[in-house]
C-alpha cells in the first residue's frame, strides 16, 4: 500500500541474522506504535522477562506518513519494548523521538526495525538501502553521542562537516541505479550512560532528538548496540500527491503562524508568552528566551510547519527543547543550554534528573542525609549547587556509575528505595513521582486527564492536547492579571466539538472537584488514550502540533483542525479512505493490545494507585482549569485540592466497565478483546491465566 | 525616587544573617510553572536563591523577556513571613508587605516588590564585600 | 519581465562586467578565461536569453525542515524522496548557526553549463515558458553530462538524477508539475515557495548577480523576524 515501504527489518544481534517481515501483515495497526505493539506481542513469548534479557525485543517504527509532507509527522520514530525505567514493574513501554530517522529508514526501504538478541561485542548497524551490515563498534564504545554520530557520518558518507567541499552528492559510485543523496546518514546512538545499562539511558539522534523515557538507551547497551545508521535513496509512493500538497497548503494558509505578520503569536501584551505553545506560537518557541542571548535560527524536524527548536551560534541547546532546556536552572541561559548539551552527549534521559531529581538530592543534602558526612556518602559538590560544576559532576557520575552515580543510574526512585527513603518521600511529596516512578508533569490532583492516562498506561503520558486549552492558556493569563485570553465556554465548545466520537459532550471538560470522578471524565480519558495510540503514536503526528482544538488563526470561531486534518493526510498518502472515527477505533484496539501485554506482565487494578502525596498533600499553588460552576463555565482555581482515594477507585470501576474490562482485576476480558478482533490475544491471556 | 533610599544598609552582622543559607525545615517552597513541564517545586534556602529564582537581579521581567521560561511562583504572604521570621529581616519584610495589594494580580505584586529584593540583596553583598 | 537592458545590468557586477563585455563584442585578448569558462564556451552560452524568474533563499532564516524538498519531489515526481528534490537543504546539526545549514537551489544560470553540455537538446531554454532552463524527460538519454557540468561549478550539483526513471532533474520553477493542480512557472506558483513555513524561499524577476553566492543567497528577514527574537542583520 502507498505510504508503506512493504517490509520491516528484523535483526538478531546474537546470531547476526537479518530477516524481513512483510509490513502488510501488520498494516491494520496503522504504523508506529500499533505495529510495534503487535510485533512485540508476537515476538516475545514470555513477557515477564527483564528488559535487559537478550530476548527483549525493541522496535523502532515509522509511520506511513514518515518521510512525507504530512505536517509534523514526517520525522518521528516510535520506540517500544520492555523498559527498565518504570517502577516498580518494568512495563512494556514506549518513547518517541523527532528529527529525520524514520524518514531515512523509509528511504532506505523499511517501515521499521525490530531488534532482538545481544551482540557478543560492541556493534553498530549500518544500513544503506538494501545493504545492512553489523559493524564493529569497539572504536565507538565510550564515545559520547555527538562524537559517535560524527564518526559514523565520516565512515558512511565521508562528510562529517558542512564545509563547501563537503556539500556533495554521496553514494555516486552506486548512484546511477541506486540513487544519490546530499544528506548525512541519520544516526541514533547511545552515550556512555546507555552503555552502562542505565535505566535512565536515552537514545539520541542528532543534537537534541531523544527517546528518553523508558530507558531504552540502557536496553541498547545491554544488547551491545551502540548505534544504528540509515541512509536511503528510495521513493515513498504517495496515493494522491495533489491532495497531499493541497492539504499542506490548507494548513499553511489557515492554521500556521505567520512570520510576516506574527500578530497571532503575540496575543498578550507581554510578548510571545507560551500561551499558544502549540500551533500559532512562534518558531523556536520550544527553547525559551535564547535569541536574546546569541544568534540562532528556528529549526524543525522533517516536514514540520512549526519548527519549535533552534540552532544556536555556540551550538549550546541546539535542538533541545522542553525539559532539557529547563533541566537545570543554572546561573544564566547559556549555562542552562550547556547543561542540556551535556545531558545529550552523555545520552541521559533528562526528565528524571531535572528539577524533581536534582532538587530532591539537594533537599536530602540539606537534611544531612546525602553528602560527605551523610548517611549516604557522596562527594557531589553540593556547595556548587546552581552552578555548572554541580550538574557537570552529577551527569559525569551517572554516566560513569561512579560513586553515588551507580545508584542514580538506576533512576532517582530506585536510588531512594535503596536508601530507604522512598516511602516517606513519596508520602510527603518531597519526591514528586505520582505514577510508575515518573516525575510529576501537570498536576495529578487537578488536571486529571494527565495522571489518569498515565496510571492506566506505563509512563507519564506527556500528551499536551487538552492541556494547552483547558489549563495552560488560562493559567498564564490569570497569573498575568489579564482577562482570560479566551472565554472558558468558547474553549470548551471548540474542544468538545472536535472529540469525535464523543463530540458535543462538554462535561468531559469540566475539571471541577466532583466531575473529575464522573463518567464524563471516563470518556475524556478514553478519547485521549485512543487518539494517542492511533493518530499520535501510530500515525505519529507530533504532540506539539496535534490535536488542534482551538486555534486563533482560524477566525472567527477559533476552531482548530482536529478532527479534519488527521485522516486528510493519512488518506492522501495511503490511498485508504478511513474516517477520524475509524482511526479512533484502531486506537482503541491498540490500547487494548497494550493493556493485554501489561496484564501478561502481571498488571492488576491494585497497582494502579498514585503516590500517597497525590491523595494527602494539598496543591499549594494556583492552578486553573475549565469547570462549570452554577451553570456557568469558568476557569476554576484548583489550589488546595487533593485527589480523593475512594472516589478515584470508584472512577476506576467506571472506566474499566466502559472498556469492558474486569472491574476486579482491571484486565481485558475475552468478550471485549473478541469485539476488537483480538481473540488471539485473549487466547494467550487465558493460557497464562491473566484474563 | 532612587531605590537606594528605600531601605537602610544593614550592619555586617545583620547582612550575614540575612544572607545565610537556612536549614531544610526552614526552606521556602516555590513553584516553577512552564508550558512544557508543568509545575515543578523548588526549594528556596536563601535570599540569593530567592533572587535567582525570581531572576530579579538580572532585570528580567519573568513574564516578558523570560517569555518561554514560565512563571516563577511564590506565595507572596508566605514569603513575607519567611523573610520576617526565618531570614529575620523585618525591614525588608515590612517593605514588601506594604507594597502588596490584595486585589492586584500576582504579576503586578511581584513586579512591585522586585526592586526591594534586588536592593536588599545588593546591599548585603556590598556590606559583606561580595560585590 | 526582464528586458535585455535589465539583463545586462544584472550581470554587470564583479567579474560579470567582463562577461558582459564579451557579450557586447568588446573582447580583449588578455581575457582567455572567465570563471573557468573559455571564451568560445561563454559566447555560445551568453546567447541564451535570461530566465524570467529565479529562486532566492535565505540561509539564516531556513528552519531545516526540508518541507521544500518534500514538496518539490511530490509535485514533480508524485513521490516523496529527498534524492529527487531539485532544491537541496544540507544540514550538520552539530555545527553552530549559521554554519549548520545550507540551501542549494538551481540558479537558472545566465550561462547555463547544463544546457551547453546536453548532447540531445533535452535540456534547453524554454522560450515559451519564460526562458526557464528545462529538461525534457522524454528526450533525456541519461548521460548525466548536465549534472557533471553543473558539478564543475556548484557544490553540490543543482541538477539531480532520478535513478528510478533514469533522467536528469533540475528546477523548472514548477512549469511542469503533473502532480499539482496549480500553475507554476515564472508567473505562477512554486511548490517550495508556497510551502516554506518561514518564507525562506522567494522568487524574483530580477537577474541575480551571477558571480559567487550573494546574488542567490539573500536576506529575506523583515523586522518581524526580529520581533520573533532572531537576527535580521
TrEMBL record, chain A:
Keywords: 4Fe-4S, Iron, Iron-sulfur, Metal-binding, Oxidoreductase
Pfam families membership: AFOR_C, AFOR_N
Positions of transmembrane segments: none
InterPro entries per UniProt: Ald_Fedxn_OxRdtase_dom2, Ald_Fedxn_OxRdtase_dom3, Ald_Fedxn_OxRdtase_N, Ald_Fedxn_OxRdtase_N_sf, OxRdtase_Ald_Fedxn_C, Tungsten_al_ferr_oxy-like_C, W-dependent_AOR
The protein's required cofactors: tungstopterin; [4Fe-4S] cluster
SMART domains: AFOR_N
Coiled-coil intervals, chain numbering: none
GO MF annotations, alphabetized: 4 iron, 4 sulfur cluster binding; electron transfer activity; metal ion binding; oxidoreductase activity, acting on the aldehyde or oxo group of donors, iron-sulfur protein as acceptor
Stretches with biased composition (Basic and acidic residues): 164-181
Domain (Aldehyde ferredoxin oxidoreductase N-terminal): residue spans on this chain: 4-234
Region Disordered: start-end pairs: 155-184
Family of this protein: Belongs to the AOR/FOR family.
Name of the protein this chain belongs to: Aldehyde:ferredoxin oxidoreductase
Species this protein is from: Methanohalarchaeum thermophilum
Lineage: Archaea, Methanobacteriati, Methanobacteriota, Methanonatronarchaeia, Methanonatronarchaeales
Automatic annotation (TrEMBL), chain B:
Protein's UniProt name: Uncharacterized protein
Species: Methanohalarchaeum thermophilum
Amino acid at each position: 500500500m502507498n505510504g508503506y515501504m512493504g517490509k520491516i527489518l528484523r535483526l538478531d544481534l546474537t546470531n547476526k541474522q537479518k530477516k524481513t517481515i512483510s509490513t502488510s501483515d501488520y498494516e491494520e495497526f496503522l504504523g508506529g506504535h500499533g505495529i510495534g505493539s503487535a510485533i512485540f506481542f508476537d515476538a516475545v513469548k514470555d513477557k515477564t522477562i527483564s528488559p535487559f534479557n537478550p530476548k527483549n525485543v525493541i522496535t523502532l517504527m515509522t509511520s506511513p506518513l514518515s518521510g512525507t509532507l504530512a505536517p509534523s509527522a514526517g520525522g518521528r520514530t516510535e520506540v517500544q519494548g520492555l523498559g527498565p525505567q518504570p517502577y516498580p514493574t518494568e512495563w512494556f513501554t514506549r518513547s518517541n523521538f523527532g528529527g529525520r530517522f524514520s524518514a531515512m529508514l523509509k528511504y532506505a526501504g523499511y517501515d521499521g526495525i525490530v531488534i532482538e538478541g545481544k551482540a557478543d561485542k560492541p556493534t553498530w548497524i549500518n544500513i544503506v538501502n538494501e545493504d545492512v551490515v553489523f559493524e564493529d563498534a569497539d572504536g565507538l564504545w565510550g564515545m559520547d553521542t555527538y562524537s559517535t554520530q560524527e564518526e559514523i557520518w565520516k565512515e558512511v558518507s565521508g562528510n562529517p562537516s558542512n564545509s563547501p567541499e563537503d556539500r556533495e552528492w554521496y553514494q555516486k559510485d552506486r548512484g546511477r541505479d541506486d540513487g544519490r543523496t546530499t544528506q548525512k546518514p541519520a544516526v541514533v546512538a547511545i552515550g556512555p550512560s546507555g552503555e552502562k545499562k542505565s535505566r535512565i539511558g536515552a537514545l539520541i539522534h542528532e543534537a537534541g532528538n531523544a527517546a528518553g523515557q523508558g530507558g531504552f538507551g540502557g536496553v541498547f547497551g545491554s544488547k551491545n548496540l551502540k548505534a544504528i545508521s540509515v541512509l536511503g535513496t528510495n521513493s515513498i509512493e504517495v496515493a494522491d500527491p495533489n491532495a497531499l500538497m493541497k492539504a499542506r497548503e490548507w494548513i499553511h494558509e489557515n492554521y500556521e503562524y505567520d512570520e510576516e505578520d506574527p500578530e497571532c503569536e503575540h496575543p498578550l501584551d507581554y510578548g510571545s508568552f507560551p500561551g499558544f505553545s502549540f500551533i500559532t506560537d512562534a518558531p523556536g518557541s520550544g527553547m525559551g528566551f535564547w535569541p536574546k542571548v546569541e544568534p540562532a535560527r528556528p529549526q524543525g524536524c522533517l516536514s514540520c510547519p512549526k519548527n519549535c527548536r533552534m540552532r544556536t551560534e555556540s551550538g549550546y541547546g541546539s535542538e533541545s527543547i522542553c525539559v532539557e532546556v529547563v533541566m537545570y536552572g543554572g546561573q544564566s541561559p547559556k549555562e542552562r543550554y550547556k547543561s542540556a548539551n551535556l545531558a545529550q552527549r552523555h545520552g541521559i534521559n533528562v526528565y528524571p534528573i531535572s528539577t524533581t531529581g536534582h532538587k530532591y538530592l539537594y533537599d536530602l543534602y540539606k537534611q544531612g542525609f546525602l553528602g560527605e558526612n551523610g548517611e549516604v556518602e557522596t562527594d557531589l559538590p553540593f556547595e556548587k549547587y546552581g552552578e555548572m560544576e554541580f550538574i557537570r559532576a552529577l551527569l559525569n557520575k551517572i554516566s560513569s556509575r561512579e560513586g553515588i552515580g551507580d545508584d542514580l543510574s538506576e533512576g532517582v526512585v530506585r536510588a531512594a528505595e535503596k536508601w530507604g527513603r522512598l516511602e516517606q518521600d513519596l508520602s510527603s511529596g518531597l519526591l514528586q513521582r505520582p505514577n510508575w516512578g515518573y516525575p510529576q508533569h501537570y498536576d495529578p490532583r487537578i488536571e486529571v486527564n494527565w495522571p489518569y492516562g498515565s496510571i492506566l498506561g506505563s509512563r507519564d503520558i506527556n500528551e499536551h492536547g487538552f492541556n494547552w486549552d483547558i489549563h495552560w492558556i488560562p493559567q498564564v493569563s490569570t497569573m498575568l492579571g489579564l482577562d482570560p485570553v479566551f472565554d472558558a465556554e468558547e474553549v470548551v465548545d471548540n474542544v468538545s466539538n472536535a472529540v469525535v466520537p464523543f463530540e458535543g459532550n462538554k462535561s468531559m471538560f469540566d475539571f471541577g472537584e466532583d466531575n473529575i470522578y464522573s463518567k464524563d471524565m471516563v470518556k475524556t480519558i478514553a478519547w485521549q488514550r485512543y487518539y494517542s495510540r492511533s493518530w499520535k503514536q501510530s500515525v505519529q503526528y507530533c504532540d506539539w502540533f496535534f490535536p488542534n482544538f482551538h486555534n486563533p488563526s482560524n477566525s472567527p470561531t477559533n476552531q482548530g483542525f482536529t478532527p479534519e486534518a488527521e485522516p486528510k493526510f493519512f488518506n492522501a498518502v495511503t490511498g485508504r479512505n478511513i474516517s477520524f472515527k475509524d482511526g479512533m477505533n484502531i486506537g482503541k484496539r491498540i490500547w487494548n493490545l497494550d493493556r493485554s501485554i501489561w496484564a501478561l506482565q502481571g498488571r492488576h487494578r491494585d497497582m494502579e494507585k498514585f503516590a500517597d502525596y497525590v491523595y494527602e498533600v494539598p496543591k499549594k499553588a494556583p492552578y486553573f482549569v475549565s469547570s462549570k460552576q452554577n451553570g456557568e463555565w469558568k476557569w476554576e482555581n484548583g489550589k488546595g485540592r487533593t485527589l480523593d482515594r475512594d472516589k478515584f477507585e470508584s472512577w476506576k470501576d467506571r472506566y474499566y466497565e466502559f472498556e469492558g474490562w474486569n472491574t476486579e482485576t482491571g484486565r481485558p476480558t475475552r468478550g471485549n478483546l473478541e469485539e476488537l478482533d483480538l481473540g488471539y490475544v485473549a487466547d494467550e491471556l487465558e493460557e497464562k491465566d491473566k484474563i | 525616587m532612587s531605590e537606594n533610599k528605600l531601605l537602610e544598609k544593614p550592619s555586617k552582622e545583620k547582612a550575614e544573617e540575612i544572607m545565610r543559607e537556612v536549614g531544610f525545615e526552614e526552606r521556602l517552597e516555590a513553584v516553577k510553572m512552564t508550558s512544557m513541564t508543568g509545575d515543578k517545586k523548588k526549594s528556596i534556602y536563601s535570599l540569593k536563591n530567592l533572587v535567582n529564582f525570581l531572576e530579579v537581579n538580572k532585570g528580567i521581567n519573568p513574564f516578558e523577556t523570560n517569555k518561554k521560561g514560565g512563571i516563577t511562583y511564590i506565595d507572596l504572604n508566605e514569603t513575607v513571613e519567611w523573610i520576617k521570621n526565618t531570614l529575620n529581616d523585618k525591614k525588608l519584610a515590612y517593605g514588601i508587605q506594604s507594597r502588596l495589594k490584595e486585589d492586584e494580580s500576582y504579576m503586578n505584586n511581584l513586579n512591585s516588590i522586585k526592586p526591594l529584593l534586588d536592593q536588599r540583596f545588593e546591599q548585603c553583598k556590598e556590606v559583606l564585600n561580595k560585590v | 519581465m526582464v528586458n535585455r537592458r535589465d539583463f545586462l545590468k544584472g550581470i554587470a557586477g564583479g567579474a560579470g562586467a567582463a562577461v558582459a563585455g564579451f557579450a557586447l563584442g568588446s573582447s580583449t585578448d588578455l581575457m582567455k578565461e572567465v570563471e573557468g569558462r573559455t571564451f568560445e564556451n561563454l559566447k555560445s552560452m551568453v546567447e541564451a536569453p535570461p530566465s524570467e524568474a529565479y529562486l532566492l533563499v535565505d540561509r539564516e532564516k531556513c528552519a531545516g525542515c526540508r518541507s521544500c524538498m518534500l514538496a518539490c519531489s511530490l509535485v514533480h515526481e508524485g513521490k516523496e524522496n529527498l534524492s529527487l528534490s531539485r532544491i537541496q537543504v544540507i544540514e550538520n546539526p552539530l555545527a553552530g548557526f549559521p554554519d549548520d545549514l545550507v540551501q542549494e537551489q538551481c540558479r537558472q544560470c545566465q550561462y547555463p553549463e547544463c544546457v551547453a553540455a546536453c548532447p540531445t537538446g533535452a535540456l534547453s531554454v524554454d522560450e515559451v515558458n519564460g526562458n526557464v532552463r528545462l529538461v525534457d524527460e522524454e528526450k533525456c538519454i541519461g548521460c548525466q553530462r548536465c549534472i557533471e557540468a553543473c558539478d564543475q561549478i556548484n557544490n553540490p550539483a543543482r541538477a539531480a538524477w532520478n535513478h528510478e526513471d533514469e533522467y536528469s532533474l533540475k528546477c523548472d520553477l514548477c512549469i511542469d508539475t503533473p502532480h499539482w493542480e496549480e500553475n507554476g512557472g515564472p508567473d505562477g506558483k512554486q511548490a517550495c515557495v508556497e510551502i516554506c513555513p518561514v518564507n525562506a524561499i522567494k522568487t524574483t524577476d530580477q537577474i541575480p548577480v551571477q558571480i559567487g553566492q550573494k546574488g542567490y543567497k539573500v536576506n529575506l528577514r523583515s523586522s518581524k523576524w526580529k520581533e520573533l527574537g532572531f537576527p535580521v542583520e
